[in-house]
Amino acid sequence: MCGIVGYIGKKPAAPYLLDGLKKLEYRGYDSAGIALLQGQTLIVRKEKGRVEQLEKARSAAGTAGIGHTRWATHGKPSKENAHPHVSGKFALVHNGIIENDYELRARLIKWGETFSSQTDSELIVKLLAREYCGDFLIAVKNVVKQLRGAFALAILCADFPQTIVCVRQGSPLIVGKGKDYLALASDIPAIAGEGVSAFVLKDGEFALLRETDVFFYDAQLRKIEKEQTEYDLQTDSPDLCGFRHFMRKEMQEIPQAVKDSLLQIAQAEQSACLRELLRRTERVQIVGCGTAYHSGLAAKAAIEGLARIPTEVCIASEYRYRNPIINANTLVIAVSQSGETADTLAAAQLAKEHGAYVAAVTNVPYSTLTECADLLLPTRAGREIGVAATKSYNAQLAVLYALALLFAEERQKDVLAQKRALQAMPQMCLSALPVCEEVRGWSSYFLNARSVYFIGRAEDYAAAAEGSLKLKELSYLPGEGYPAGELKHGTLALIDETTPVIAILTRKDLAEKTLNAVHEVFSRGARVFLITAFPEYRNREEVFASVLIPACERYFSPMLSVIPLQALAYYTALARGNDPDKPRNLAKSVTVE
């Protein structure tokens, strides 16, 4: 969840570290800090809050350093719990979680150690100080052998100027080599630049960055060679482009994300391996968390409806605890924007152990999920800075819908009309974007809501679930996405005059059924806000306000109906004084379980 950056070069390290951390704030922004080596002296600056709180440290001397922006796991957000942590001659930054923290902490306390923070990270640096006998790399290896959990570490030692040691186990870490400097980070955008070579560490691998060269080692510290990772410099260098927030900019980029993702999956269609996989698949399981799970709900309707293949959608964090039924003819589709979501990775690994074929739907081609999967189905959303997913959700839908059509074709289904409809979706998304400004006026009715409910049937329920998540993430208003017919089985007891209800209606054949639920909540005093593809339903007595989106192929409607839902969450967040790009307690990449 946290962001790590490091630098060794001829120029001052502090500006590079601070700029890199700002690019990684989507990974956490509870606190931040940097450590610099000035000769053989460690200088540490850290603060609670965002990276901008460290601006005074920009002028600090030192040409080697490490930095960290935190998302709290062990210990509350505070200056004391901020990284880097220091003990003896070592300074350390850590992304991940140490599962045997209690055991190691008890051992260190027994040896007489005291702690100044509540973090699991501090115990690592204290172990380092105890293990150190003059060999930096050996000391790190010996400590790593004692750790259980997921971690990426970057470490300075006062005895080794212009040197950083780093290691990865379950949390991403990338090393960059520029013309006259070395760098490391949790994600490529923090180190991307003209002429910079990037190398992705695998689990158990170490890197030694020293002066102008980098050396890679396996878990036994045997030297290894690593291939350079290709990346798109333009895609990974975002700018607000005049927008107030990245979220609003990224919503505007939905049509392009859908178009690019469809082009990418069209190239994959030529793969004989993919076609063979489609032919032998008897069951599909889709695993994901949050927004990725909701994209799976929408995909299930399309795969079952168009290809008639039984499809199950599973919350990744629960998947491996329920003894899933898997065989060699099961296709498990793991969906993760970052490709580093710990729960989704664990689910994918379990599926492989049980003999399933695993396909990864991810926006990051160099991610851990990509490495784990048998097949990559990449989305092409470009880098998404806003913590709440917007364009990446639509890109996931584009890829999953295209896969549903491929399944149908392999089963001799006539889906020519649906193929044409999917190719038209980028333009339809563009046509839906203007409704964002119409939804802006709704936000004032949500400011003092006790709770908010989103209802829909079939595909509209999948969109309702995602709309509810967006509003919770950004506005901090409690609520839920519900199948419209389920309200009367308990939840209707929560509806009163303080409860806005958003109804989604994109299927004509289900209109009267959905409107029954609308009438039920209206009768209990709720204000009903309608998102529909049919103008004739906008002026009903029960509808307080409405927006009209384009009508499209039924299976693909969540790609359009989600746009006003994203806008509602965005504008409600602004009306409540929240930062829509950085909602409290959340981070973009969830690399811990």
How would you explain this protein's 3D organization?
Helix 6 (254-268) packs parallel to helix 12 (391-410). This protein has a seven-stranded antiparallel β-sheet, with helices on one face. By secondary structure, the chain is an alpha/beta fold.
| Structural class label | alpha/beta
Poorly predicted segments:
none
Which of globular, elongated, flat, extended, rod-shaped describes the shape?
globular
* Order of adjacent strands in the largest pleated sheet: 3-2-4-1-10-9-11
Radius of gyration: 25 Å
First-to-last CA distance? 10 Å
Number of DSSP E strands: 24
Contiguous helical run count: 18
Summed over residues and divided by their number, the pLDDT gives a mean of: 92
In which range does the helix fraction lie?
25-40%
The biggest beta sheet reads: 7 strands, antiparallel
Strand percentage, roughly?
15-25%
Short structural description:
Helix content is 34%, strand content 23%. It is of the alpha/beta class and 593 residues long. Helix 14 (425-432) packs parallel to helix 18.
Which terms would index this structure?
single chain, 593 residues, alpha/beta, 7-stranded antiparallel β-sheet, 18 helices
Helix-strand layout with pairing:
Layout: E1 3-9, H1 13-23, E2 31-38, E3 41-48, E4 64-70, E5 85-87, E6 90-98, H2 101-110, H3 121-131, H4 136-144, E7 149-157, E8 163-169, E9 174-177, E10 181-185, E11 197-200, E12 206-210, E13 213-217, E14 223-224, H5 246-252, H6 254-268, H7 272-280, E15 283-288, H8 291-307, E16 311-315, H9 316-319, E17 330-336, H10 342-353, E18 357-362, H11 368-372, E19 375-376, H12 391-410, H13 416-423, H14 425-432, H15 435-440, E20 452-456, H16 459-475, E21 479-483, E22 501-505, H17 511-523, E23 528-532, E24 543-548, H18 558-575
Parallel strand pairs: 15-16, 15-17, 17-18, 18-19, 20-21, 20-22, 22-23, 23-24
Antiparallel strand pairs: 1-4, 1-10, 2-3, 2-4, 5-6, 6-7, 7-8, 8-12, 9-10, 9-11, 12-13, 13-14
